[in-house]
Amino acid sequence: MKPVLSALTLGILASLSGCGYLMGDNGYFRDRAGDYQQAEVKPRMTVPADLESKPMGDLLPVPGQVAAAPQPGEKFETPRPRPMAAGVDTSTFSLQQEGSQRWVLAQLPASEVWPLLQRFWSDYRVPMARSDAALSEASTQWVDFSQSTGNPLVRRMLPLVQEGQRIDDEEQRFRVRLEPGVNNGTAEIKVLHQARDLGDDDSEWPSRSDNTNFERALLAELETYLNQSTSTDGPALVSSIINSGPVETSLEQDGAGNSVLYMLTDFNRAWSDVGEALARADVYVTDYNRSSGVYYVNLEQTRSEQEEEPGFFARWFGGDNEDKQVEDDGSQLQVRLTPTSNRIEVSVDAGIEHAADGTTARELLERIQRGLNERPPRQ
Predict the structure, then answer these.
(1) Sign of CA dihedral 317, 320, 323, 326
(2) What is the pLDDT of residues 351-373, one digit of tens each?
(3) Which residues contact 146 (CB under 8 A, 6 or more apart)?
(4) Alpha helical stretches, state H, the chain
């Protein structure tokens, strides 16, 4: 019985489709892709004079230039969409990661990025061993961090790598390579790090960075420097990172009576300086969230007590436990950086819903302020 019903059903459907009942131009399952071409422009809606109304714009405005309708008999082809333009807030340089690979993506051709990289090495006064514009590759000389604290780049990295990591008996070098990006008009900046013992003669570059945290550190520094170099106030911003003196600070009280440390600088500089100040004040940083502008600190422990733990440098740049969640056991505080007007507000909280003890918060902010004022002069 079932085969008979199936055959009967197929026969009925075939007869109906033949007369266009289902699939034809007037059928139930007809193609509606071109219906919009039959749309009519209706008069604008008006509101009676005795009623009040608010200004109402067009929700779906018609573009100013519309292609002419196809002539009878011509097939209409939907035009390809235009390439999506980059928004005004899109950074020219951005840090990318895929698996274990990291690089800085530049929305500029390699020919325009190479001079900026040369300026980076010059501004940071990094001794170069080789710079080949034809190969778009540059490598630094071997640098002993413990003996190069006067170098601007080493000085910015050193407070982040001292905890839990011995570098006194090592020297470091970096290789930066500029490659064409996947999309036309873009470039990729890749970094390779190598470390060796002092006195060693190893000069063969490894296939992967000896220390991925060092690699990430230089990429992050390049991203910040290059973005600020290409901004409207590029020279001033770069100077504020490398050549300026201590940031102007003031410890005050807000309207609620809470202690607040104000820093007259931008967020990037303030974030870096507060991190250095916490390290200089021997405050143990358990974790951080740069997007939220928060350092998680534990006042019951010091950095010197944590030398056997994973270094702050690894936590700063993620390390191998980037997904680690911070547990609030009541013993840690949050040092929060909030941009306000033309300055940064540094405050101390016990949590999102809990205020820190007023005396403890002020003492911690005073330690941060002393750490900011005690930073070595930039040479």
Answers:
(1) negative
(2) 766 778 888 889 999 999 888 87
(3) 167, 168
(4) 2-18, 110-123, 152-161, 212-229, 234-242, 267-280, 312-316, 358-373
Higher pLDDT, 30 or 286: 286
CB 130 within 8 A of CB 139: yes
Domains present along the chain, CATH in parentheses: 93-242 (3.30.310.220), 249-373 (3.30.310.170)
Q: In the sheet where 93-98 sits, what is the strand order?
A: 93-98, 101-106, 187-197, 170-180, 137-140, 128-132
Q: Is 269:247 a contact under the CB 8 Å cutoff?
A: yes
Q: Give the tens place of pLDDT for each residue, 4-35.
A: 555 566 556 555 555 555 666 676 677 777 77
Of 199-208, 264-273, 312-321, which gets the smallest average pLDDT?
312-321
Could you tell me the CA-to-CA distances from 128 to 46, 117, 185 in Å, in that order?
72, 12, 28
Cα separations (Å) of 336 from 4, 92, 249, 301, 304? 77, 27, 15, 19, 23
Half-sphere exposure of 178 (CA within 13 A, CB side): 24
Reading the block at residue 165, the tokens are 């990591």
